[in-house]
Amino acid sequence: MGHGFIVYIDESGCDGLLKFKSKGIQGSSHWFAQSCLIVDVNADSDLVRLRDKIIKETSRGSVQRQHLHFVKLNHDQRLTTSRIIGESLARQWRCSTVFSKKLGMSPATIAMYQQRPIAGRPESGKSLYYWYVARHLIERISWCCDESKSAEKSAKLVFSRRKHTDVNLFKAYLAKLKAQGTSATTIRWNVIDIDAVEVAYYKQYAGLQLVDATASSFARAVEIDHRSGEREKAYAHNLRPITYSRNGNYRSYGMKCLLDKGQQLTSEEQTFFDGYK
Q1: Distance CA 250, CA 237 (A)
Q2: Which of 96, 62, 97 is nearest to 76 (CA)?
Q3: Of the candidates 163, 164, 14, 179, which has an alpha carbon nearest to the alpha carbon of residue 100?
């Protein structure tokens, strides 16, 4: 099956739901963010040149790295990285991010996501939380590709490899959602090629390195740095030119926030989501 788009997917934050970090205490992140870069297949090779440009710009005065890894960059290098991605990709690529606030989830929801896998049920086990977030991201991927002007709208999904991700179980999960129809999800299945879903190490594709920077940029807008006590919104704002929107509306398209029953955003978190216009 030919594809019109290649979609690179990575996350920032961990999927742990039990012990959360605070100043001086190790633990899980308060937020989990999963992002994608939706790339026209004919422009995929351009990502290598873009990745190399960022590495060159952020390595001045030091040994040049072979791969781009956002967590290893300092603040100025992260600003440069997010700015170059936002400016360089504005005409040919789109990104979308699904945010999930973990802090304050109900005990029942946490218990559901912590259950052991059940034979014959791909939607069970600890991977369910990761898959649930991915499900919402894939919805937005399908909308964006389906609404494009491209003659070929089908998309190949490439996930960055992580521990405990079984690509065959994930394919089975997607196939089950597809069989359930519109009662389960608004994914436009004519776009998503389930059989072609791939999991790869981030070093294998420039696109995975760029989406690592994308996910990390958005996550740092909501996740508090427990050393400084601050959030950093500048990276995410640099990516506004490539964020998927409809008529200037980013909420629910390029930015989707998942909240459990009873969860609320802080005033600063709400300001970020409201102000991303």
Answers
A1: 12
A2: 62
A3: 14
Phi-psi category of 46—alpha, beta or left, where left has phi over 0 and alpha has psi -120 to 50?
Answer: alpha
- In contact, 195 and 202? CB cutoff 8 Å: no
The CA-CA-CA angle for residues 38, 207, 215, to 5°, reads 75
**What is the tens place of the pLDDT at every residue in 109-145?**
888 887 766 666 655 566 889 999 999 999 999 999 9
What is the number of domains present in the chain?
1
CATH of the domain at 183: 3.30.420.10
Q: Which residue matches tokens 């909308």?
A: 143
**Cα–Cα dist 68/70, whole Å:** 6
Residue with tokens 């506004």: 240
Give the domain range for residue 129. Answer: 5-275
Burial of 190: CB neighbours in 10 Å, binned 0-12, 13-18, 19+: exposed
Task: Write the pLDDT tens digit of every residue in 221-264.
Answer: 999 887 777 899 999 999 999 999 998 899 899 999 999 988 99
Determine the residue type at 113.
Y
- Cα pseudo-dihedral 81, 236, 90, 214, rounded to 10: 60
Read off the pTM.
0.94
CB count in 10 Å sphere of residue 226: 16
> 């299945």: which residue's tokens?
189
